[in-house]
């Protein structure tokens, strides 16, 4: 009997729990139900209230392929748009989920960086011209990203419908990147100075410099061996990503930024292309570079097996002296290190033609779009419009005006609190959403207007790390020493004035890009796999003979699997589009 | 018998091997644990090997600060308890039914069931079926699809078949129906396998995040594992960002190894606390065998 | 179809109204069998819905499927995804290599599937209960750590630069140059199997421990009365007691011969060991999933299902032949 009682009790408990939990999900369901009710009300009025914050609270589902966050937008950004628009964002992160959402026919209210070709084909996106939505609520988008709207309308909307707007929109000349650019190389500035800043002509010249630097600093902070280079393989696509970064120093990129072209390298500013593993391609030069580095004992033997976080740790500890990308140096360039005069800084070579992307008025292809099934087209458009307005771009990047930054002496300046908050050393005040600045940022994780463009309201770029006030604010000894030596405030200033960049001009075509036919698609992944595998084997080849042998093996295998055919297909697309435009 | 109390060479070897293997299993876990409570700086340099240094709990505090954790714990707990009860009940019952040779079309239906273990329709068709069934943003999606699990049914059936049939037969003669026989006669006999299935299901439910990833967008229904998984994988979208030079975002979303490890610990520790409870069912059974002999 | 037996049972029932209990035994099978079926029916409906219904998606294997776009507007590729596997000698070589890896690792996996049995039997021989509990709890720990984390532990242990093992060997003067264990292709199959054993042994043994618990204690008693030694007890009582479970798992394992899973091989794979570590599931990931090639992934998935079912029934027939009974 007692046993039976026990079971009964357990059953009751479970039923209670079921009821409770289904009530939970039920309430979520009824939420959306009541929302649709209020939406009907809105529709009847056809016009939304002029003050967005007066409107009823809604939650928008934002699907973003770039987001790594799921759930309600937290922190200061969440608070900001709640106050401004009475909108909450429910972020849905991307990845494989995209295919299921596409298949279901519902992309939510806002869809970011999705496959727009298939989405328009499948009719999953809202036409912004319908009911004059764009004209009524999208004034800033039209003003600041009008060319992008036109371009996308021509590409995907037959010239009449508008389904999306591009990201990173901007116009102007020169590189569109931030102050530090995307590629390096950055070296340990203190050691380079100790060597008397030897001249570096070609990329290969770094090797002997690295060797000397290694001799100067054979042990890291914690007493581990120091290497010139430490690579990682977990981000590789077709081929090794780190090898590609060396090609980029000569102005060559994998792909062309428009087509599916990841087995060819294209020159950023000229109509030139190379097959990835063609003899003497920039990629092969990069491979050879790391192979030589390994022969000299400069390449971290764990490069093949470690993942990116391990590499980041090694940089922090001072185990690595060369940085292909500026951002990997953050771990080492801590306050403690730079105040001792130790830190990474940009050291170019004479031949350098760093690959960069020019301002693109048509926008990049991480499109912002609205799901066809949204219940609140007006409210979504209002919100998106703000995201493309100077106020929205500035506050999304730097945080609320008044708290984080303000205009001082006519120039935008971070407040004292702002300086602390951007290094995440203090919490945001509770009335602004609380939490650390980085945790409360916009979790959609896509840009709207290019941050290097000038904010018409402040006269300086949107990116606060490019503000004069920021640059002049108490530079650390390493930065100071670098500026004295190079005669410029930032890397960007230096490379632009010294002509060390290959700027890729914006490209526009009325034709959407060609999608891969099924046979090409599969061949490409097979070939890419071979290239990736052999690239690493070649970097670690024991001697020149093995290097050559592996090279031959790679070429014959790749060709056997259809390398030539895929390269031909990709090159044809390139020449018809981006290449043709560059010739003009 | 005295023989049983003598310590033989076999015992020495046996104990030693088990001790060594246990150590091999435990040490990595211990190692990861001490790294989560040691100074992150020392830990990332690989200096924490055998004992914690500069003990702190900020990693755990940081993990516990992830928003939505308490609601997610509740959901996880709910799906684990409900899902386990349903699966164990269904597996026990179906295993019993399929052990009866008299069932109509038994062989066919059994195969109908078992072969599904080797089908995989793929992500999209599965998703669309769940969508049509209204199992998007629905708690039932966590517990209903797993109710019938072929593997567990096989285990129960095998187990039931190894128990003496005479008990069932005599109950039948006394006029007991199938349900009564199952409840009164079979259930007590198959407790060990049901306990096993309970453990397997509970761990599976507790650790599952894939279903949340694809089927749930409502944060009220997020599970603990899902939230932690998302946190854990902070670095995965780096590669995507990389390709366009959105470099300033990169530094912000680097996830330290220490946090990853902490997250894993947070998931495993509740399991460790509950595990001994299930263990009773085995150890007790084994003892009966030993004591009687 | 159901009319016939249904009517029969009614007639039978009428007959039995006049009959006595001895006849009741006879009529049982008729009514009983439908009752049993109808009790299972709701569950079979669930199986149909969740396992059979989605199979309509197998049609994607014949298209260049793109999510969201109706099949009518999608390129029909016929058997292209299937034939592409053998389209040219290089491609065939790739597929053969992948299959070789799959078979080798699976075969090792099946060989090591006796280890949990041995583990369970010998654990029973531990008389100290708290030791037994500790062993049983702690050996399941690796099962709870994801492969990603297992790899980061392996990296800590075996990396060239500051790995625990290399540090140890170098300081003892046993080697001069550090070993690159993770970045080598020596014994890849074996090391993958060992990682699998390490992670799954304690967990896998639970099933057998449960089976041992279910053995009728009287069997032990009777054998002891007959003067059987400890090892005889193991061999003549414990082993036969867990054999049914072992055989069921063995047959399921054989049917799963080409499903190695993916995660373990994914985290451990690198350029050096790729030629031996790339099993079928990893290959599908590398070629199909990464590239969003749903048609290809589905095609492979169909082939896998077919092979698995063939293996399942073959193993089952073999079991019937050898042991006189099958498991399904």
Explain how this protein is built:
The complex is a heterotrimer of chains A (584), B (293) and C (328). Chain A folds into two domains: 53-170 and 358-473, Periplasmic binding protein-like II (D-Maltodextrin-Binding Protein, domain 2), CATH 3.40.190.10; 186-355 and 483-502 and 514-583, D-Maltodextrin-Binding Protein, domain 2 (3-Layer(aba) Sandwich). In chain A, 43% of the residues lie in helices and 11% in strands. Chain A has helices at residues 2-45, 75-85, 97-104, 116-121, 133-137, 139-156, 189-194, 205-216, 241-247, 282-295, 308-317, 335-339, 377-387, 390-398, 416-422, 468-472, 477-486, 491-497, 518-539, 544-560, 563-576, 578-583, and strands spanning 58-64, 71-72, 87-93, 110-112, 164-167, 186-188, 252-254, 264-267, 273-275, 322-323, 344-346, 354-357, 364-370, 405-408, 411-414, 501-504. Chain A has a six-stranded mixed beta sheet. Chain B is mainly α and 293 residues long. Chain B has two domains: 1-56, no CATH class; 65-292, MetI-like (MetI-like fold, Orthogonal Bundle), CATH 1.10.3720. Helices cover 70% and strands 0% of the residues of chain B. Chain B has helices at residues 9-37, 40-44, 58-64, 69-98, 106-114, 123-132, 140-143, 150-162, 166-173, 178-189, 191-207, 210-215, 224-232, 238-242, 247-252, 257-292. Chain B is globular and about 70 Å long. Chain C has two domains: 1-56, no CATH class; 95-323, MetI-like fold (Orthogonal Bundle). Helices cover 70% and strands 0% of the residues of chain C. Chain C has helices spanning 3-18, 21-52, 80-83, 89-111, 115-124, 129-138, 141-144, 147-158, 164-171, 188-213, 217-225, 230-255, 263-268, 274-277, 280-289, 294-323. In chain C, helix 1 (3-18) runs antiparallel to helix 2 and helix 10 crosses helix 12. The longest helix of chain C is centred in the N-terminal third of the chain and has 32 residues, at 21-52. Mean pLDDT of chain C is 85; it is low at 1-27. The chains are: A alpha+beta (584), B mainly alpha (293), C mainly alpha (328). Chains in contact: A-B, A-C, B-C. At the B-C interface, helix 1, helix 4, helix 5, helix 6 and helix 8 of B face helix 2, helix 5, helix 6, helix 7 and helix 8 of C.
């Amino acid at each position: 009997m007692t046993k039976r009682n026990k079971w009964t009790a357990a059953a009751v408990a479970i039923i209670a729990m079921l009821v409770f939990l289904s009530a939970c999900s039920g309430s979520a369901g009824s939420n959306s139900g009541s929302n649709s009710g209020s939406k009907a009300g809105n529709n009847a009025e056809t016009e939304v209230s002029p003050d967005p914050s007066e409107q009823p609270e809604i939650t928008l589902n934002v699907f973003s392929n770039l987001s790594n966050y799921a759930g309600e937008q937290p922190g200061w950004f969440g608070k900001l748009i709640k106050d401004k628009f009475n909108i909450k964002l429910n972020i849905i992160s991307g990845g494989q989920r995209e295919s299921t959402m596409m298949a279901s026919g519902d992309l939510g209210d806002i869809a970011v960086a999705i496959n727009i070709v298939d989405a328009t084909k499948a009719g999953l996106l809202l036409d912004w011209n319908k009911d004059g939505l764009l004209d009524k609520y999208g004034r800033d988008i039209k003003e600041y990203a009008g060319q992008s709207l036109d371009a996308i309308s021509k590409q995907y909307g037959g010239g009449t419908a508008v389904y999306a707007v591009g990201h990173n929109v901007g116009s102007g000349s020169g590189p569109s990147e931030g102050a530090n650019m995307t590629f390096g190389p950055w070296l340990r500035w203190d050691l380079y100075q100790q060597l008397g800043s030897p001249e570096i002509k070609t990329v290969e010249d770094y090797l002997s410099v690295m060797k000397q630097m290694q001799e100067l600093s054979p042990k890291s902070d914690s007493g581990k061996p120091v290497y010139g280079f430490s690579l990682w393989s977990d981000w590789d696509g077709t081929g090794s990503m780190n090898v590609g970064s060396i090609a980029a120093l000569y102005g060559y990129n994998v792909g062309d930024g428009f087509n599916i072209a990841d087995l060819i390298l294209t020159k950023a500013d000229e109509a030139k292309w190379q097959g990835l593993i063609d003899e003497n391609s920039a990629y092969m030069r990069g491979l050879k570079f790391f192979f030589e580095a390994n022969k000299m004992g400069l390449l971290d033997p764990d490069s093949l097996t470690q993942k990116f976080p391990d590499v980041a740790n090694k940089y922090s500890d001072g185990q690595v002296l060369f940085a292909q990308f500026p951002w990997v140096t953050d771990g080492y360039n801590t306050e403690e290190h730079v105040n001792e005069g130790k830190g990474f800084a940009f050291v170019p070579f004479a031949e350098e033609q760093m690959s960069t992307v020019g301002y693109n008025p048509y926008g990049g292809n991480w499109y912002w779009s609205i799901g066809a099934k949204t219940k609140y087209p007006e409210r979504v458009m209002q919100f998106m419009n703000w995201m493309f307005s100077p106020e929205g771009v500035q506050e999304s990047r730097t945080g609320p005006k008044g708290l984080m930054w303000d205009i001082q002496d006519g120039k935008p300046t971070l407040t004292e609190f702002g300086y602390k908050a951007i290094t995440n050393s203090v919490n945001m005040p509770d009335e602004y959403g609380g939490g650390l600045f980085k945790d409360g940022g916009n979790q959609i994780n896509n840009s709207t207007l290019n941050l290097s463009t000038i904010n018409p309201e402040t006269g300086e770029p949107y990116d606060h790390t490019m503000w004069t006030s920021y640059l002049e604010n108490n530079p650390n000894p390493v930065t100071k020493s670098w500026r004295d030596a190079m005669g410029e405030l930032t890397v960007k200033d230096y490379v632009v004035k010294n002509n060390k960049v290959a700027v890729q001009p914006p490209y526009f075509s009325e034709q959407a890009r060609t999608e891969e036919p099924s046979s090409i698609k599969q061949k490409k992944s097979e070939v890419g796999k071979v290239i990736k595998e052999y690239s690493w084997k070649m970097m670690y080849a024991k001697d020149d003979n093995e290097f050559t042998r592996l090279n031959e093996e790679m070429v014959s295998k790749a060709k056997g699997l259809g390398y030539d055919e895929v390269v031909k297909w990709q090159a044809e697309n390139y020449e018809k589009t981006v290449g043709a435009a560059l010739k003009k | 018998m005295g023989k049983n109390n003598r310590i033989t060479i076999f015992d020495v070897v046996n104990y030693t091997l088990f001790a060594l293997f246990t150590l091999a299993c435990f040490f990595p876990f211990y190692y990861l644990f001490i790294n989560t409570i040691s100074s992150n700086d020392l830990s990332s340099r690989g200096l924490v090997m055998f004992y914690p240094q500069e003990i702190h709990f900020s990693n755990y505090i940081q993990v516990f600060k992830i928003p939505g954790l308490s609601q997610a714990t509740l959901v996880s707990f709910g799906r684990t308890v409900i899902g386990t009860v349903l699966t164990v009940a269904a597996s026990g019952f179906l295993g019993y039914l399929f052990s009866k040779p008299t069932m109509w079309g038994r062989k066919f239906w059994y195969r109908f069931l078992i072969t599904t273990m080797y089908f995989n329709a793929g992500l999209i068709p599965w998703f669309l079926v769940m969508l049509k069934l209204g199992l998007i943003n629905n708690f039932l999606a966590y517990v209903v699809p797993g109710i019938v699990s072929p593997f567990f049914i096989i285990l129960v059936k095998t187990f039931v078949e190894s128990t003496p049939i005479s008990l069932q037969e005599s109950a039948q003669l006394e006029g007991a129906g199938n349900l009564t026989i199952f409840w009164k006669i079979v259930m007590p006999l198959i407790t060990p396998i049901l306990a096993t299935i309970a453990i397997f299901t509970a761990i599976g439910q507790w650790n599952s995040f894939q279903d949340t990833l694809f089927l749930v967008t409502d944060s009220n229904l997020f599970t603990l594992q899902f939230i932690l998984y998302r946190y854990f994988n902070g670095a995965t979208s780096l590669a995507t960002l990389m390709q366009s030079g959105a470099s300033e975002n990169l530094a912000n979303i680097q996830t330290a190894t220490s946090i990853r490890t902490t997250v894993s610990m947070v998931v495993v520790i509740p399991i460790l606390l509950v595990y001994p409870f299930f263990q009773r069912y085995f150890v007790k059974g084994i003892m009966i065998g030993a004591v009687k002999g | 179809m159901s009319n016939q037996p249904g009517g029969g049972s009614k007639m039978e029932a009428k007959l039995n109204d006049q009959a006595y209990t001895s006849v009741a035994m006879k009529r049982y099978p008729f009514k009983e069998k439908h009752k049993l079926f109808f009790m299972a029916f709701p569950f079979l409906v669930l199986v149909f819905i969740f396992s059979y219904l989605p199979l309509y998606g197998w049609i994607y294997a014949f298209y260049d499927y793109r999510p969201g776009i109706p099949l009518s507007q999608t390129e029909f590729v016929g058997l292209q995804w299937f034939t592409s596997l053998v389209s040219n000698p290089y491609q065939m070589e790739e597929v053969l290599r992948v299959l070789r890896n799959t078979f080798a690792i699976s075969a090792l996996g099946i060989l090591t599937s006796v280890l949990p049995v041995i583990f369970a039997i010998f654990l029973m021989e531990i008389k100290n209960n708290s030791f037994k509990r500790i062993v049983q709890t702690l050996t399941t720990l690796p099962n709870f750590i994801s492969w990603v984390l297992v790899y980061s532990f392996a990296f800590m242990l075996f990396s060239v630069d500051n790995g625990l093992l290399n540090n140890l060997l170098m300081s003892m003067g046993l080697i001069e140059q550090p070993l690159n264990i993770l970045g080598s292709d020596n014994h890849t199959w074996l090391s993958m199997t060992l990682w699998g054993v390490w992670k799954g042994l304690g967990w896998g043994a639970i099933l057998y421990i449960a089976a041992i618990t279910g053995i009728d204690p009287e069997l032990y008693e009777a054998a002891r009365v007959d003067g059987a030694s400890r090892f005889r007890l193991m061999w003549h009582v414990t082993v036969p007691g867990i054999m049914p479970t072992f055989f069921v798992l063995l047959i399921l394992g054989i049917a799963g011969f080409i499903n190695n899973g993916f995660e373990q091989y994914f985290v451990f794979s690198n350029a050096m060991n790729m030629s031996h570590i790339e099993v079928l599931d990893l290959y599908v990931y590398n070629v199909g999933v990464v590239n969003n090639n749903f048609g290809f992934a589905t095609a492979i998935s169909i082939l896998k299902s077919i092979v698995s079912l063939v293996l399942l029934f073959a193993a089952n027939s073999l079991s019937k032949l050898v042991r006189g009974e099958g498991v399904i």
